[in-house]
Design a protein that fits this description.
Mean pLDDT: 92
CATH class: Mainly Beta
Helix content: 10-25%
Shape: globular
Number of domains: 1
Strand content: over 45%
Radius of gyration: 12 Å
Order of helices and strands: EHEEEE
Number of strands: 5
CATH architecture: Beta Barrel
Distance between the termini: 18 Å
Structural class: mainly beta
CATH topology: OB fold (Dihydrolipoamide Acetyltransferase, E2P)
Length: 75
């Protein structure tokens, strides 16, 4: 399995565009400097009243299919 770590800050107002389907995917820069894209729906369980803020990791299987998106304590 592989994992990628990144920091994300999306305001509640901005996340509304993802929720309403105007934007279907999220693009982030990882701590290693790579740019990745993943489905916006993966963030849904991490949304708070202030939006989505924090450090995260995506775990992939050996075929680079996303297994999970998890909040982490740090990068």
């Amino acid at each position: 399995m592989n994992e990628i770590r990144f920091r994300l800050e999306i305001s509640a107002q901005e996340y509304l565009r993802y929720y309403q389907g105007e934007v279907g995917s999220v693009q982030v820069m990882t701590v290693s400097g790579k740019t990745i894209q993943f489905p916006a729906g993966a963030l849904q369980k991490h949304v708070t009243q202030s939006g989505v803020n924090g450090s995260f990791r995506i775990i992939f299987d050996d075929d680079n299919k996303m297994i999970s998106l998890e909040r982490t304590a740090y990068l």
